[in-house]
User: What shape does this take?
Amino acid sequence: MTFKKIVLIMAMHSEADPIRDALELEEMDKLHPSLPMDSYKGKIGQTELLLLVNGVDPRFQVDSIGTQPATLATFAAIQAWQPDLILNAGTCGAFKSKGAEIAKVYWGNKVIHHDRRISIPGFREYGVGDYPVFTDQALAQKLEMEFATISSGNSLDMCDTDYQILDQEERVVKEMEAAGIAYVAELMQVPYLGIKSVTDLVDGGMLAQDEFLLHLKNSSLALQQKVLALLQEISIK
Amino acid sequence: MTFKKIVLIMAMHSEADPIRDALELEEMDKLHPSLPMDSYKGKIGQTELLLLVNGVDPRFQVDSIGTQPATLATFAAIQAWQPDLILNAGTCGAFKSKGAEIAKVYWGNKVIHHDRRISIPGFREYGVGDYPVFTDQALAQKLEMEFATISSGNSLDMCDTDYQILDQEERVVKEMEAAGIAYVAELMQVPYLGIKSVTDLVDGGMLAQDEFLLHLKNSSLALQQKVLALLQEISIK
Assistant: This one.
């Protein structure tokens, strides 16, 4: 399956810059003068590619990570550009006990939250989310990517309650944006495809923040390779 | 201080409907056909009032609570209507040990997150947020509202880690939207004013969900009275 106009949403410049450089994307005006998101554009064959990086928070001067800027970026991007695919690529934590390794890249076949616990009938499932995702089994095999459940939360660490929820069999990948992006993509009826590269093993014994910073570069390079290969496959020749 | 165009953002219809009815607000077209938010308009003196209720999630058929829809609603509202004040009113949990009672209404003089733990230098403060808020000491006194710190998180319950963070002296009010709204208001340079009415005492011994449902109506009525009184004071005669 191919797409005419793909918006690639990424949270951090350290994740996005290798992809921007490899594809020689051109910087555009900001989507909105008051939003921190940075925009770039290019072409892959006949397909238009727009890269949106969530950008640097104007007050804190750090990358705008988490589901709030991800929600904002996705809505602004769909409104402005009307893509036929939202591609979300980023780094993540993952469970060694469930097969994860540093710089392994997963394709999300399920996107849920682990920090929206709402024990009121009806709201419980809303809190989990379980947003629609675009998957292609044959393409995942060709690109040597495994499917995995992506679970989003707004903390880099895992408290005991997070761990109990995440340790459930199906949750392999832990990161901070996918569910925000997939939520808006569903509302706006644009397919969502998420791929995540492992920077830290959440059950590996190291502090998430230390392991994250240690492996960010390698993990971002592995992500870059898979994103470029994937874009080749889903763009129009 | 008075405002020309106020956008009132509320998460749940059960909180918003008494206010909508009391002010005889008129239903408008949706802000965006794909978004669940419901829009209403009216006048208070010479001030234009626009009420945005986060609306019913199309898949789960429950009110769109939490910071993601709050983020989305605030951006869409500011973009469409360009208000000079974002007023956010809603129900909340609060600490009995810090003076809270059911149906007491607080005015937020600080808005922070309690579920964005990011232990990387620079990101830590970003995770807490501490967004700018509009306050008026004399007006709060006149309306018999106390100032309090509002802390937002995407879970209705409190896990042990949440409790440890929330139990810190300054955090009185616990709710699920303020920080999402105040985040966007800051980016878009619109003043944020938040008032919250207590539905459950987080250290009162009852389950949050049971107490929330038990006191939602009373708490919403108390909220309505304060919102109407506040709007009278900040609108143009």
